[in-house]
# Entry
Amino acid sequence: MSGHAPVTARLCAEEVRERVAALPDPELPVIGLGDLGVVHSVAPGADGVLEVEIIPTYLGCPALPEITAVVREVLTACGHPDGRVRHVLTPAWTTDRITPEGRRALAAHGIAPPVSPAPDGPVPVALGAVPCPHCGSTATRPHSDFGPSRCQSVLWCTACREPFPHLTALGGTP
# Structure
């Protein structure tokens, strides 16, 4: 007995995608990779081998090796031990890729998600545009550019006087 679970069948690309999307982000475990918007595609490559394309949240993301390892484990468990994980830079990841469910999960765990602008409206850039996940006040101010991970800063709510992490906006959102 090798200690590995036997593979009974190869799962299709959509089933593999669902399993990969459900994996928690190593730095933000309250959100899955799918809701974070980093799973670009799951499809057979030109040679027929299943490939999972991951969009890094930014260059040099320290979580990429761990994400790659757990995605490879999913590929193997789904009957694709020869599957590949590729990091793609196009399209670039932006905070616009975070799903509404992902934004709710971040807020529910005290992490302020980036503010989404109205589809046709201006992009808010003033201080106080980020609501406090504790009390909902927009009377928030920067506290530190350095948060619990490289992709987060810390804001301070002047209403409830609580600090909170804020997922740094990249792309079209503030």
User: Anything to note?
Assistant: Residues 43 and 107 are 32 Å apart (CA to CA).
